[in-house]
Amino acid sequence: MAKSIIERFLKYVSFDTQSSEDFTDCPSTAKQMVFAEYLRDELISEGLEDVYLDVHGYLYATLPASEGFGDRPVIGFISHMDTSPDCSGCDVRPRIVSNYDGGDIILSEGIVSSPQKFPELLSHIGEDIIVTDGHTLLGADDKAGIAEIVQAMVYLREHPEVHHGKIRIAFNPDEEIGMGAHLFDVARFGCDWAYTMDGGEVGELEFENFNAASAKIKINGCSVHPGYAKDKMINAGRVATELIQKLPQEETPEHTEGYEGFFHLTGIQGSCESATLSIIIRDHDRQKFEARKQLMTDIVADMNRSYGDGTVELTLADQYYNMREKVEPMMHIITTAQKAMEMAGITPAVKAIRGGTDGAQLSFRGLPCPNIFAGGINFHGPFEFCPVQSMEKAMQTIVNICQIVAE
After folding, report:
1. Nearest to 151 by CA among 401, 399, 345
2. Which one is catalytic: 174, 175, 198, 384?
3. Annotated catalytic residue 21
4. Catalytic: which of 16, 46, 82, 358?
5. Per-residue pLDDT tens for 87-122?
6. What CA–CA distance (Å, rounded) separates 262 from 85?
7. Are 317 and 213 in contact (CB under 8 A)?
8. Which of 374, 342, 345, 343 is CA-nearest to residue 358?
9. Rounded CA separation 305/240 (Å)
10. In the annotation, is 82 catalytic?
């Protein structure tokens, strides 16, 4: 008996695939490879061809073209296997809330998912919602995308009357730490264009994203007995808090929306002797993005003038850029996705991503790759949920895209 999309998804989230920012290799965690090997075997058993898993955890496969349609553009679908370091993905215990009634959902004792706090729940009244037990994330980001892609390939294989060209699929590690596309083999993938299935709410279609950079800051203090510290001590922990206060206080994630950029403190550790800060920098506008990086550089230089050269060390690294400039010359790939959604009874909602996807990096490596909804909501936390009907709509959108390109 063929697997349902629900069965696939529930099996996928049973794998702990949390990535780690403290990495020395790819994938950043060995447990991602365990899931990759499972998927490899599943794709083989489902009849896909050219199934290949490399040593870094990148998995590729092919659904051959329908007879007589081998001259069509080769298109691809991509999702990532890892889950966010922000919340545990170990021992995920999903539950299906059938025919959701619009009320509070008790995840476990004392943990409630309420539409008062998460009004997006109300858009899914009457649907079957997969939730967590309130102690882990769910993993719909992006295992919903993987389930949708695999299910779509199986559907096309089982329905030869739905014509399509050659379809390539790929699943990669480490997207959540900004490294998912770094070792992606674009040449092996061999597509004219692709789509990441990594968005949220039904209808989302995204080809704009943040320009992104990471700032790693090390503060070298000077520890002296506090009773004799005058004009000698440099308290690294206090210097760290001073640096944070020099950043624009209203330009943080909790104060911004839409196209507004931000500085986001993602980690801080410290003592009097030494301290470290991790900050991410985001902006849709490339000039504003460069100005933000310059501000960070200027703040560090100013603090070194105050405390002495070498007190504050900054490592600034670009992560990805806004894919819009690479997708706009090929807007037919956007209109194709819009038409596919409309065929599935979905109203497309083109919006800018307040984040990034692997598609952003891939677009700059020669593979235009906008992002389509996968259906999960409230990513990266214990209140994450995913409506079954949203996954089914995403799967149908994939099938429709394949059919439209063939026609």
Report:
1. 399
2. 175
3. no
4. 82
5. 999 999 999 999 999 999 999 999 999 999 999 999
6. 20
7. yes
8. 374
9. 15
10. yes
